[in-house]
Amino acid sequence: MTRRMVRLLEVAALAACAAAAVPGLASAQSYAYTGPNGNPDAIFAPMMRDDRPEASQAARFRRQLVAYPTREAAGTIVIDTPNTYLYLVLGGGKALRYGIGVGREGFTWSGVETISRTAEWPDWFPPAEMIARQPYLPRFMAGGPGNPLGARALYLGNSQYRIHGTNDPTTIGHHVSSGCIRLTNEDVMDLFGRVKVGTRVVVLPQTAHRAPVARAPTVTPVSMAPSAAPVSVSLRSDRGFGYGIR
């Protein structure tokens, strides 16, 4: 064996040791961030495949095309509170299903709203009621990757409820918020591109039938754009407030 071959083997061994010293290096999902003056959306572009066991366990909350018979018109958003799903009705018995986080005990609500406005990387102004409960909260937080409202926000009528992103994806599938509906930033960005101001949003009550956990269907890529939904009269519940965080 030549000296050059020995050296190459030594370099390979050192590289293998370095990879082994960083748990999950080969399988963890990483993100690129362009910096404060760049495009913050870039942090949500996956660079590596995520094969962690916990990712597999959350497969049912991945965005996917599912069968969804309903009388709601195409373009309607249905919030299935007890099962922590958001459905975007496509028509023809189909819907796009997203995993969501919903209000914790005492902060769930139900009714019908419409999307009154939308925002990218929204600023956050914690209201007085929330600050009274959590005095440590900031009085203002600029939009960005660290903001609890995440990458996008869809404001519901004249209420303080929102459908928005989150910088804590581990809360998806749980009852954790003050009434707002949260999605992963990747999912809320996808939803944001499919709906418009005036979209009808139907929020089902927590007392609705909770479906048994079933095997997650195969994820199907979807590229069609939904049709706009008609504006409806608000029937908002006044129970609790939705400010996007615990």
Kindly list the characteristics that best describe this protein.
246 residues; alpha/beta; L,D-transpeptidase catalytic domain-like; 9-stranded mixed beta sheet; two-stranded parallel sheet; 4 helices
What does this molecule look like?
With 246 residues, the protein is an alpha/beta fold. It has a domain at 52-203: L,D-transpeptidase catalytic domain-like, CATH 2.40.440. It has helices spanning 3-21, 53-57, 128-133, 185-192, and strands at residues 64-67, 77-80, 85-91, 94-99, 102-103, 111-120, 152-156, 162-164, 175-177, 181-182, 200-203. It has a nine-stranded mixed beta sheet, covered by helices on one side. The longest helix has 19 residues, at 3-21. The chain is globular and about 45 Å long. It starts with a helix and ends in a 43-residue tail after the last strand. 30% of the residues are buried.
